[in-house]
Design goal:
about 190 residues, alpha+beta, elongated, SH3 type barrels, three-stranded mixed beta sheet, 9 strands, 2 domains
Length: about 190
């Protein structure tokens, strides 16, 4: 049986720990905690045939969200064993495994109301990312999608101009050097 990070034993009941250990054996993975991160919640790294694959999860996550991220990464590990690199990382095969993992973990762990809604949404419509926690938008801030094309806005310490929509992101030009950047529609920016 693989060794689980100590934080898992603090967060989860025996059933969840058995699930995680069983999946680690089945998928030939070791679990590791990574540095705290606001953007990268977890990752799966495939190794050579004679080494165990690795799953990393951010150490600063709430227990419920960490469990959802672990299910996501375990789906990558299981899908990798079946398809190797012949299929898309977040393709149909991965989605089926992810949903199966989420449905199983839902029966083993008691999620908070908010995390339970996130979990149910992922079961109904599996996707690669977990929606970031909603935050209160300040008076001088706005969602990028609410600004008209050609509008200028501040993000970080730079001024940008909103140019065009490309699939799901806006192409924006940084004013000081005319470099182009892709921004999510739900990016919170300051009006100029």
């Amino acid at each position: 049986m693989p060794e689980l990070p100590e934080i898992f034993t603090q967060y989860y009941n025996t059933s969840v720990l058995q699930f995680l250990a069983g999946k680690a054996d089945q998928c030939k993975v070791n679990y590791f905690l990574q540095r705290s991160s606001k953007t990268k919640l977890g990752s799966f790294r495939s190794k050579s045939l004679w080494k165990r694959n690795e799953i990393f999860v951010a150490r600063n996550l709430e227990p419920d969200i960490m469990l959802i991220v672990l299910c996501h990464e375990l789906a990558h590990a299981e899908h990798f064993l079946k398809a190797k690199r012949r299929d898309k990382p977040h393709g149909l095969g991965w989605k089926k495994i992810y949903v199966r993992n989420l449905e199983e973990i839902k029966t083993l762990h008691e999620f908070s109301e908010e995390s339970g809604k996130t979990l149910q949404g992922l079961i109904e419509k599996p996707r690669a990312s977990i929606d970031p926690r909603a935050r209160e938008i300040k008076e001088d801030e706005v969602l990028l999608s609410a600004l008209p094309m050609g509008a200028q806005f501040e993000f970080g310490q730079a001024i940008y101009e909103k140019k065009e929509l490309r699939r799901s992101r806006f192409l924006c030009i940084r004013q000081r050097d005319s470099r182009a950047f892709a921004f999510r529609k739900d990016a919170v920016v300051k009006r100029v």
